[in-house]
Amino acid sequence: MAAPVKNRDRQSASLLARQKPIETSYEEGIDRKLLKAIRQRFLDINQVRLQHTRASLSTRQQVILDILPLLFHVNHPLLPGFSSRECPYKLANYEPDEEALFAAQRYSKTFKYREEPRHSPEITGIFLMGSTGTIAHSEQSDMDVWLCHVDNLDVAALACLQTKAESISAWADELGLELHFFLMNDTAFRNRAQDNRVDSESSGSAQHFLLLDEFYRTSLYLCGKYPLWWLIPPDLEQDYATWADRLITQRFIKGEEYLDFGGLSSIPKEELVGAGLWQLYKGIDSPYKSVLKLLLNEVYAQELPEKYPLSLEFKAKMYAGVNDTVDVDPYIMIYRRLEQYLGARSEKNRLTLVRKSFYLKIGEKLTHGRRERNVSWRRVAMQALVSDWGWQNKELTYLDKRQDWRVSQVLVERKSVVSELTHCYRFISQYARQNRLKAAINVEDMNLLGRKLYAAFQRKAGKLEFINPNIAPDITEENLGFHHASSQSWSADAKGWLLYKALENAADAAYFSALKRSTSLVELITWSHYNGLLGRSTRLGLLPGTSKVTLFELRNIIESLQQHIQVPFSAVAQARYKEQPYAMQIVLFINVGMDPLERYTAMGVHKLSSRNDSLGYSSVRDNLVLTLDQVTRNSWNEVLVNRYELGDTLIQCLKNYLAQLMSRSEGQPMPELSVKCFCQSRATAIARRVEELFVDVAEAFFGATGTLNTRYIIELDRRFFAIQFFDQQPRFTGFESIQDLLVYLSQPQREYTRLKLDRYALTDYKKIRAVCAQCEPDTVQVFFYPQHEDADVYILDEKGSLFAYNTPFYDIYSLLIPLQRFLLSIQDRRQMRQDINEVWMDSEIVMNELVFDPLSNAIVPSMVAVEDRADAGNYFEVQAIGNHELNGELEFDIFCDQQEFTTMEYGDRLIPAVAHFILSRRHKGERYPCYITDLGLPHDLDQHDYQSTLQTVQYLFYKQALESALNEQIRYHPSQDNGVS
């Protein structure tokens, strides 16, 4: 059984003190005693670092360190992490010591350890790596664990082992220690077959040799097989594989003794690019820590291979003999390398940032008095470094009071950090271009890293900067003042807003710099909330100047943001970066600092009519939405603020909202929408109306099965707006009159497009509103509304186009029979154009009369049955056939009761000739209207590439034009009606 850890700790210091340089000359022969001495030297330094690790842990956390190897050596249901009896277990070369067994029995009194000699070890080694045991490790630090296993485990066994590791992590978390396990196989790693994906703890494919470099210089060997790398002298690293093979084949070492992750003869330049991007990715959330690693990456790019990487430098020191563990501390070695590099380049500002980052990373607050009898080695080492730097109490006090930093200090620090991250990004880009490199990172990982960098640092319109990426723990301000620019004595006419902090008197603003400026008050409030300046106890000040903003409104905006966009945000899941960002939360603020009825209130007018629609209020139809501020949080945790205050503000905002909805991918949820209004007049009604509109429009275009083909009509501020998507983008078209709107609605459509009206649209046009509500696919619906001597006719065709016209009215029969025959003839023509094997479905033709319903006070359709009789009335066919002439114009030949009238024969006199013929066939020359009963059009009429067949509305357009021309020649007068044709 291995010796207790405490005894080994007492031995370590003296062992290190006696070390001497090891002379290695493998060309002259390999000495087994020498190999043993080399291995022992690494084990000795390893033991000192284990002692440091234990010293940084609480008593409860030390138990985890004691029992961790045993948990993987046995597979016992009474111990933490047990998942199933099939889970791989047993550690190579491990025998639990007294402390491990004692810890296990404390956890389970009935546990008894039994050796299983027949079971082959499936766990080959356990290593801690990272900051563990270094000057950077503290009680709050997490631990990364390499759990090494044999290479013949199947998928099920690996999944079981992963489950066990996660269960042990959860147990350790309960004791206050954060563990991250990484399942490793040395053969797979050496052959670059290890499956590593980018997540919050793993760099994925971004680095292999750099990860190996870190492992060799930072890893703590707990148990199992030791790394073969220890035994290859640093000056032979270039021939690592050769010497490793010689040690193995000549049986200087046994297979059950070692793990071989491979050598570090070189680090590919391509990997430095990928690793740099990865560290930039980490730098977004941990800037000070990442500054050190980013700069180390730059140093490697500039100095390798002429100089050793740090792992070989560490190995060289071990071979040379070390009597001071501080000299081989991995983090101190990083600092020394960076100091040499930046000092040689005289880059003092960057060196200052490195020292600051290093000091904050270590976390030893040197200005805080220590009364302990035995001062920790970390504190002693840090004091020596700070003394070398020449830092005084002023610098130390500033850093030690990091928890007291507020926005002004954070902005200064962020500028320094972002400047360095930007410099590193430019260096990586330039290094890659100069060496014509591609990052050693797969495309998916590269995209993930790039997208997170974009989300964190890329500026774009409306996006707010996040100023405190773990620079200070809390930057809540006790006092914040929001001042309109016009409140300044020097800018009475100025616009925009300024944010101040901790002003005892508002007049002092002239003598202090504003924290931030913006044209939008909502942007200032959101920026303060997003960055943590606004707390529940923050006292607010307001100088509205010439604006109408009230303290009531200011407080309500803040409360709304705190309710709907809660900070801090949870971390973005990696899967989110695989998709384009989409809106998750949207808050709209209406009429901030505005009273939409101010001019009426000033006149003492409080009610103009019974019309309460906030988008067409009162008899003058005023739109009460004057300004809109939209706050959006997207799936990448970006926060954007857009202000709409000029032109059609509501339409612009709605267009942006629809574009955001369209940008979602399949399965992504609709954003959570909240609409707020705190103005002095009709605030609740305005907010409710706008929210209803946005919800209705979203439902009109986005259904459970995907995007819906819709034309949505809004009546706003005495105008009409139509919304329709083209090429995945919303298009808004405005109309000044109902006639213009009807022309738009009659346009042909690519496919069936339903008509949807806003709940307050066209309330003065009840007939059109009633017709639009009946829109259905593959149906031609005729609606007519007789009015004494004429009738309004509306036809909804099979694709949702609406054709409207007014025509003289004699009776229902004379109006509907010719129209019915015309529609049937169109169907016949379309059927003839179909492939003979294609199934043809006629569109249903439905006739309706529009009637007034007194119960609902609305116009409603009533279906009319029309029976067509061939012998009814004095009827004959009027048929028009259209052809393109040489000049490209469309000309018609007309056939009237089998009589042919061609353009070639009659030219410009065609219409008068046909009218004369029609009158000649009537008894006594009656002048009642005539109707086209059949119409032929060329297939390439409008040359739309999306049309295989012409749409009914296109036939109706030419029918109406020809009928109007003929009836103008007949000179119809209603008083002379006494028959039909």
Automatic annotation (TrEMBL):
Database matches in InterPro entries: Adenylate_cyclase_1 (IPR000274), Adenylate_cyclase_1_N (IPR024685)
Any GO MF annotation of the entry: adenylate cyclase activity
Top-level taxon of the source organism: Bacteria
Domain Adenylate cyclase class-I N-terminal, first and last residues per copy: 35-230
Signal peptide coordinates: none
Biological process per Gene Ontology, one example term: cAMP biosynthetic process
Protein name according to UniProt: Adenylate cyclase
Lineage of producing organism: Bacteria, Pseudomonadati, Pseudomonadota, Gammaproteobacteria, Oceanospirillales
